[in-house]
Amino acid sequence: MTARIASPDVEDLKPPVRSTGILGWLRANLFNTPLNSILTLFILFCLYKTIPSMVQWAFVDSLWLSDAEACREADGACWSVVSQNLRFILFGFYPYDLQWRPALAIAMLIGLFFYSRNTRRWNRRLLYLWAAGLLVMGILMHGGGPGLPEVETDQWGGISLTLLLSLFGLTAAYPLGVLLALGRRSELPAIKAVCVVYIELIRGVPLISMLFMASVMFPLFLPEGITINKILRAQAAIILFTAAYIAEVVRGGLQAIPRGQYEAAESLGLDYPKTMRLIILPQALKIVIPPTVSILISAFKDTSLVVIIGLFDLLKTTQVTLSNPAWIRFSAEAYLFIAALYFLGCFSMSNFSRYLEKELKT
Predict the structure, then answer these.
(1) pTM of the prediction?
(2) What is the DSSP string of 110-150?
(3) DSSP assigned state of 244
(4) What is the pLDDT of residues 29-39, one digit of tens each?
(5) H-run or E-run covering 327
(6) What span, in angstroms and rounded, lies between the C-alpha atoms of 158 and 170?
(7) Using CB atoms within 10 A of its CB, is residue 335 exposed (0-12), middle (13-18) or buried (19+)?
(8) How many CB atoms lie within 10 A of CB 90?
């Protein structure tokens, strides 16, 4: 039995205040060098000069539910340009009394995304749920079903058209890009050549030219009497364009898989489809999550380019609103509003990417 030796009372020494807490963080991150100190002070001065006046303009002196006449006499922001034209900005020329249908479709879409965040729900049942949800959303948008009046696609617009182009475009482009990546690494010369030519050709032109070809040039090659909907043509252009970039990203992931994984699959007697589906692609796609999401975010923002072919997406409906002489002075508020919507979409995808990386331990 060991006897406990009584030690004299010693006061616990705390770490220096300058290295812990807020002061420690400031010294370590903002004032650790003379140059960083000068930059920090400069940025603080700029924020001091801009933030108060911006808050005064955006919130204190702003008008939210007034008419255009009252906005002209106000000193602050006129958010009324958004509130008074919100339904047209969000839904375009969709019939006014039927706009609950695209609103419900958007709510269903957001609900499906939230439900699908949990990777433990990624099974065949979720696939069926998405298929049923997209079918219901299509019926809601187009109508013609039980008790729903039909609405032609040329009346679709606003955020519903933006989400339609981006969602279906990204969903269809991803598997096509994976197939192109596999084709580019194929040992069959014909398939490899076709995939290489396609990827390099599409990546060599901007999306605007693809949309122009789909909108103006492609109908010239169709037989007389046959027409394809403009939204469908724009959707096809977005899918083909995005798939080429996804293919190159996935190809990088395939090249990162060591040769031993292929040899292990061969030793198990797996054929090529099973090797890719069970061994190679799950690892490769997990590796390339960050660059893939970057491409998807870029494609989501590029859907605004459909303005040049006359589709009334979110940006176009905002421009039409601002063409009204009553609201022509308040473009900053309107563009800030749609910028916030695009930011929410892009930030949500980026946040989901970080969640997947953490969940899958990439």
Answers:
(1) 0.82
(2) HHHHHHTTSGGG-SHHHHHHHHHHHHHHHHHHH--STT---
(3) H
(4) 888 889 999 99
(5) none
(6) 18
(7) middle
(8) 22
